[in-house]
Amino acid sequence: MAIRRFESNGRYSKVVENNGILYISGQVCNDPTGDIKEQTAETLAKIEEILIKYGSDREHMLSANVYIKDMSLFKEMNSIYDAWVVKDNEPARVCVEAKLANPSLLVEISCVAAMK
Q: pTM of this prediction?
């Protein structure tokens, strides 16, 4: 099966599909003025839209990489993330503190998912 790339811009592809696996690039909120809960909710909503658009869903997520601006926000971010993840279908996950491209951003999430 050929590797397929979607929404490429010369630097990266938003989604890459290979052998029924979707690799979704780091997603951030559109409105970085919100707090960590708002930014996390918006970011996860974007990921869900991408999953559905390319033939997957939250139940088929395999892994998630969470980049958070400050680990003091970990508990608040998790309060939104934990409610979003499908019970008994939790992906493997890592969460690390990182400097993000825009100083107003508090969280960025990338993921890998199997197609349905």
A: 0.96
